[in-house]
Amino acid sequence: MNKSPLAVALEIIRLEPLTVSEGENTLLSSAHISLVLDAARYGVRESGVMFHIYSPPTHGTLHLEIWEHDAHAGQMFTLLDLAKDKVRYIHDGSESRLDSFQCEVALSPGPGFLLPSYLQGRHRFRFHIQITPVNDPPTLTIPQTRVLRLAQGTRKTLSSDLLLASDLDSSPADLVFSVNQSESSMGHLERDHVTTLSFTQEELSQGRVQYVHTGNSTGNFKLALQVRLAAHKGTGNFKLALQVVEGGQERLSGSIVCHGVSSLSYRVTRPPRHGRLDLTEAVTSKKIIARDISRFSGAQLSRSLILYSHDDSESRSDRVEFVAVSSDKEDFQYIGSISISVALTNDNAPRRSSNHSVELVTGSSHLVLPSHLSYADEDTDATPHNIIYSVRSSEGGALYSAVKQTDRPLSEFSQ
Questions:
Q1: 61: β partners
Q2: Where are this protein's CSPG repeats (predicted)?
Q3: Do 371 and 357 contact (CB within 8 A), yes or no?
Q4: What is the mean pLDDT of residues 107-117?
Q5: 323-329 mean pLDDT
Q6: How sure is the predictor about 3, in pLDDT bands with cuts at 50, 70 and 90?
Q7: Strand partners, 300
Q8: How far is 304 from 254, CA to CA, in rounded Å?
């Protein structure tokens, strides 16, 4: 018997990863955690299927109304709470692409019912959450106590102490400052000693941007700036990172925006080896209208209609390469790639690899070897230590530890 996830291996529950946009929240429902076991057979109602939070999410929180009103409720919810849409996951807005939490499911039968021994107690499992990235706007930091001071008719280099734009999704070279309006009679900006109305955060940090005072007046004046993401024109490389749970699905999102380019078409030059790309009917539906596609439009990409489906193999990564082109008149081309990382799950049932009987005479003992009893797990992260045997019954003898000298028979041991 595989120790993790036991609740799935015993076919008590079925799990479907939750998908949420960065910084947003969504309901955790019975569509994500559903009951496979015929619970009514054991007198277990939906309110008797209890999920105890063993370890909470790392990049978000779970919210249930009863937790706010009952301090003694603890971090626990039921299958009935899921069916009534009472459980919600709230992402913390970080740049994480995956999150998860661990639960222990326990069954509470009604009066007069007794659960089989293998269903008694708590069974732990991990629930996975996929985070859809959002390209947040840049953040501009201008300390209120810092003022640019310079003598009449001189110049001064601007630094990050005065202006600092940051964006977790973009590099300093892609953060562009533009002059909105200025008191031009006072002076102008120069980049590399050439008058300019724009510069990047990278150029600012390198000390390449200066303000030059050219007027006859002195006193206080303001320079209005705005910061935006750069739009590239011409050819280049575009990389997108995608994270998906083993056997799961994730939508491609975003687009390449360039000045002077009205639309782009995408052609896959290297398809994924451990999955496929499908075109779906809508972002709220997984109905596939074209399977294993090699071409898609910019409009389909921006509407998140392109779905990557992992093939449930034990691969840890995948990759898609593509080229995005505009019309011949606009003459634009982008060569891009999508790097896909796969979070493996321990979802394969152990299989028996040896099955030989042990022969011994009455009253004797014999060492049980892997040649007599052996199970293997196809999950790449599974080890013999993770494969646990539980002794249900024993007739005519018992199993004892060959390492620990004890008179107590074994009830559990590993491969």
A1: 90
A2: 9-106, 139-228
A3: no
A4: 88
A5: 76
A6: very low
A7: none
A8: 8
User: What is the rounded average pLDDT for all residues in the chain?
Assistant: 81
Range with the poorest average pLDDT among 38-42, 178-182, 223-227: 178-182
- Region 13-132: CATH code: 2.60.40
Q: CA 139, 144, 150 angle in degrees (round to 5)?
A: 110
Q: What is the mean pLDDT of residues 346-357?
A: 75
| This model's pTM is above 0.85 | no
Q: Does residue 351 register a pLDDT over 80?
A: no
In this prediction, residue 136 carries a pLDDT of 66
Pick the CATH number of 241-343 from 2.60.40.10, 3.30.365.10, 3.40.50.150, 3.40.1260.20: 2.60.40.10
SS (H, E, C) the chain: CECCCHHHHCCCEEECCEEEECCCEEEECCCCEEECCCHHHHCCCHHHEEEEEEECCCCEEEEEHHHHHCCCCCCEEEHHHHHCCCEEEEECCCCCCEEEEEEEEEECCCCCCCCCHHHCCEEEEEEEEEEECCCCCCEEECCCCCCCCCCCCCEEECCCCCCEEECCCCCHHHEEEEEEEECCCCEEEEECCEEECEEEHHHHHCCCEEEEECCCCCCCCCEEEEEEECCCCCCCEEEEEEEEECCCEEECCCCCCCCCCCCCEEEEEECCCCEEEEEEEECCEEEEEECCCCEEEHHHHHCCCEEEEECCCCCCEEEEEEEEECCCCCCCEEEEEEEEEEECCCCCCCEEEEECCCCCCCCCCCCCCCCCEEEECCCCCCCHHHEEEECCCCCCCCCCCCCCCCCCCCCEEEC
Note the pLDDT of residue 61: 92
What pLDDT does 235 receive? 43
Number of Cβ within 10 Å of residue 191's Cβ equals 16
- Give residue limits of the domains in the chain: 13-132, 139-229, 241-343, 348-414
Which pair of structure tokens corresponds to residue 12? Answer: 């008590």
Q: Does the fold of domain 241-343 match that of domain 13-132? A: yes
